[in-house]
Structures are given as structure tokens and as C-alpha cells.
Amino acid sequence: MSQRKAKEYRRAMDQYNGVVEDVDDLKRRIGAMEARHRREDLAAEAAKRREAARMWAKMQAQSAAAERAAEEQKKVERHKRNERRRRELARRRIITLACAAVLLLAIVWAIATACTAQENEPEKEVTDVDPVVFMEAEKIEEALLAQGYLSDAVPLSYDLQDIMRTACEEYGCPYSLALAVAEVESHFDMDAVGSAGEVGIMQLNPGPENTYWVNLEAETNQDPTTPAGNIVCGVYLLGTHLVHYGDTEKAVMAYNMGNAGAERAWENGVTSTEHSEKVMEAMARWEAVVG
Fold first, then answer.
1. Fewest CB atoms less than 10 Å from the CB: which of 3, 158, 194, 273?
2. Total domain count for the chain?
3. Would you say the pTM of this structure is higher than 0.90?
């Protein structure tokens, strides 16, 4: 090979080697750039996930706070309603006591008049005075019955009828519904005891370690194991379910099955039971009797 050709060959090989080195350098740079881009993309994805998790946690916290605030507002409103009811009941009782005092004074005046007449006419027998006293008492009783506040059709004493009516007004429960529940649950038997330990006319379940009774007593200041307290606590429970579910038959199902049991039944499409149907029928009958 001539020197000229050899020189040209070396020059060509040098140029080729330079090109190869440039290509290898370019590949390395592209690889490094792609690796950097992948790292940046992974870091960005991780940052997005962290931000999404932070926002989700923030939304959950805000939702929980809103639920707590709504629950507190409900408690405040319920307390206000109860206070208004108590004030109204107190006002009504004052009026009732005033009327009773007037009637009592009338009875005392009638007795005093009768006694004076007896003293002035000693020859008259005592039987001439007794009818006056009895007539005044009968007028009072007839007035209360005529108003429909008390009824001989209700198998409860007048005192317990008054307690049930007062509790119904306080806790927003229809009087006919309370009577229907008492009828279906116990047939108005104060000494009735259920298979799960339910007691009284309203058949109140004690719950685990009597926790249900304890909660009812805390809410009403009444002992659910006494006749009067059993009525008040049962009416309170019915009124609470009516407010919570906004439907009479749902309230009856929750009263009988518990909140969780009733809600599971509704989820499965069950909107009434044999027990709730009996109560609704009895309620309709009592509405015709007591209004």
C-alpha cells in the first residue's frame, strides 16, 4: 500500500472512531436524561398521591367536624324544644291547679254552707247535707270526663292517664299511639315481664347490664321499673323515634326491634311487621275513642 493510500485510510479510520465516540456519548446522555425524567415523574406521582391523601384526610376531618356540629345543633334544638314543652306544660299545670283551687274553694264553701244550715236546723238529718257535697264532687269528675281528658274506656287509673297524656305532650307522641303500644305490648298489665326481661305496661328492655334503663332514666329523670316511670320512658322512646324517622310505623318498628334491627329490615325491603300492623290498628281504634 502506498504511503498516500495509507494516510487516507488512517484519516478515514480516525473520522469513523470520532463519529462512534460521539454516538456513544449521545446514547449515554440520552440514557441519563431519560433516567432523570423517570425519577422526576416518579417523584411527581408520589407528590400527587401525598397531596391527594392529605386532601382526603382534610375532607374526612371536615366532614366529621360538620357531623359533630350538626349533632350538637340537633341536641341544642332538642333541648330548646323540650324546654318549650316543659314551660308550656308548667303553664298548663298552673292553670289546672288554679282551676282545681277554685273548685276546691267551691266545695269547701258548699260544705261550710251545708254545715251552717245543719247547725241552724238541728232537727234535719245529716242525709239532707250529704247530697250537696257529693253533687259538687260529681260535677268535677263529670267535667273532666266530658272534656275527654280522662276516659273510662282507657283501662288505666285517672292518675296514670294524666301521666301518659302529660308525657305525650312533652315528648311529641300521639296519645292514641301510646295507648296502642301499651295495649299490644302488655295489654295494660303493669306486672308484665317479657322473655328478654322487658317490664311494665310499655315493656321496656333493660339492655346489657341495664344500660337501656339507665339511659332512659338519665333522659327522663324517671325510673322505668315503676308504673309512672315506665309510661314516661316508653312515651319518650316513641317520641324520639318519631322525630328521628318521621314516620309512625317506622317508629313502632324501631321501638319493637331496636334501631339497628329496624334499619336492617328496611334495607331488606321490610316496611311493616305483624307487631307494627297490630299497633297501627290499635292506634286507629284509640283515636276513635280518645281523639
1. 3
2. 1
3. no
